[in-house]
Description:
The protein is of the alpha/beta class. The protein is built from 5 helices and 12 strands. About 25% of the residues lie in helices and about 25% in strands.
Amino acid sequence: MPVIVFRDGQGLGNQLWLYASAKSICEKLGFDLEIKNYNKFKGKDFLKLKYEKKSEVDEKKLDIFHERTYFDKSLGYIVSSYDENVLKIDKDTVLEGIYQSERYFFNDLEKIKRYIKVDQKLIKKNYIDKNLCILNIRGGEYKRHRSFTLNKDYWLNAINNFRNKFKIYDFKIVTDDFNYAKALFPKMEIIHS
Length: 193
């Protein structure tokens, strides 16, 4: 079976892209998917992933498929895109990469709804008040590229929209960059890590 590995340092978004793309690739090839280090999945407290089994295989004993990357001069950054060679893998292969291209869903984005489900039991256990709005402010490497970051006016407009449309007045920030979020909103509670 193809295997993906959840690792320290991956964000939830990175894990979801890796999982959903790998699941779609496996489906296209007629393979099942295994997940190694499921305990490191950041969404395990509220999401259910559809996969065959948690893997205990030694990834060092399997073939590794590294998604093709290249250096984008305009961004000054290493990026990846759809790598058609993934369709030539053997079944016992670790998929390494970020797999953040819609092309991995082979013209069927509805797959994502089948692969990833909100676990209502876990939501009740980890309840978030409906009068709370959580802002996910991305900092980190995004700050290197001004076109990737959202300015403070964007967030202020979002807050005002939630206040006016939904009568929500309690806001918290979730971020990968505490200092950046604190500089934007010094009085707002920030959840980090």
